[in-house]
Amino acid sequence: MHDTNVTTLLESRLHAKALELLRKLGELADERGVGAYVVGGVVRDLVLDVGAGFDLDVVVEERGEEFAETAAARLGGSVKAHTRFGTAILVVPGGGKVDVATARSEVYERPGALPVVTPGPIARDLERRDFTINSMAVTINAGDFGRLLDFHGGHADLTKRGILRVLSERSFEDDPTRILRGVRFAARFGFGFEPETERLLRQAVAEDRLSTVSGERIANEIVLILGEPEPWPPVERLATWGILDAIVAGWAVPPEVEATFAEVARLADHVSDDEPGRRAEGETWRVRFLAMLEPSDRGVRNAVLDRLNAGRRMRTLALELARFEDETREIISADVRLQDSTLHRSLSGFSRELLGFCRARWRGTRVAERIGRYVNELAGTATSLTGGDLESLGIPQGPAVGKVLAKLLEARLDGSIGSREDEIELATRLARELDEGNKS
Ligand code: CTP
User: Fold this and answer.
1) Does the Cβ of 168 fall within 6 Å of ligand 1?
2) Is domain 163-227 in CATH 3.10.20.580, yes or no?
3) What is the CATH code for 7-161?
4) What is d(CA 439, CA 433) in angstroms, rounded to the nearest whole number?
């Protein structure tokens, strides 16, 4: 496999600008006498022919920061951030960014090595990676452009065997987030685990290796899983392989949640948060996360939120769910005629995300039907008069304005008034009543 040249693949599947940039970086690498490579997920996606994006991971056999600074100076870009030692983000004009990392080698350092791309430091770098399918690299040096380096059989695992295989038996110990990454990749590509890899993964779970990982890192992996186009299969595996339980004892996601996930996807347009300009899919991970929490009792829910160091919005959503369960669900599931104003009053204090979740969770019931009515028909209802209009009708600033507006909205929702004139008439009457009430 070592001599496969994938230049044609690069040319046909990479964005033209990305390709041009890689060639320029390759020329620079030649001048500096170092090896340079595209690595990791981009190579995997390229071989698999799934939309390789514009964001590239490049490894150089020298200090990544220095290489990136030189490239930025030459190409007119900038180096945005040094994420960790030896790594820099090169941002180039016309969009696109490249992560430039130092080939990490514990064995030997060869400053000023010749630009011959032979198994050397890059090989050391690649053998530290998570799975064979992520351990391939492609040379970008001008004299050797497009050569696929595949020291671990990643190409065959990816294109023939369809498996996830670790490179070393210590892989999950070295970085337990790979447990979650493995589950995500297996589901995304419809791959199985190579038997020894599965054994090592399950062993790492049983040995509680995840307990050493920070909440942020675990949360980050879960968010990535929930952002997959088909998030249920990996979530189901997290549950059935005891991975959730290893994260927080007692955290379980039963099989019924699958149907909630499906309904969330179906309703995706309606469950976006209420901030304009955000796309629904981008935020549905919170709704799905809520679906993973809801079957648990409050103690486990809170333990999960604490363990994952959940942010304010996720916590607010969990609180909203508790409030819905405690105060609202009974009202809106009652088998009685419900005034639209009552429905509005019951649901207007909840976020779109919470309502989206509840609608999916209680699909096919009166609860979902009424939430649907609220979201589609009532939530946008507004009075035509404003607070300012009421003041010009003689209603003094203060709580009276709010009271009258609420009454107007209620009357509008229940259909007893329809036009602006109706509102003026009702407001005037209400103002008079308030006034008389104050006098008496
Ligand atoms: N990697 C690793 N172990 C990790 C994380 C990352 O070995 N815990 C390596 C892999 O070689 C991986 C590369 O770093 O391909 C880049 O990681 P990342 O950008 O997180 O993921 P991708 O593999 O690019 O996949 P995707 O962005 O599609 O999730």
Assistant:
1) no
2) no
3) 3.30.460.10
4) 10
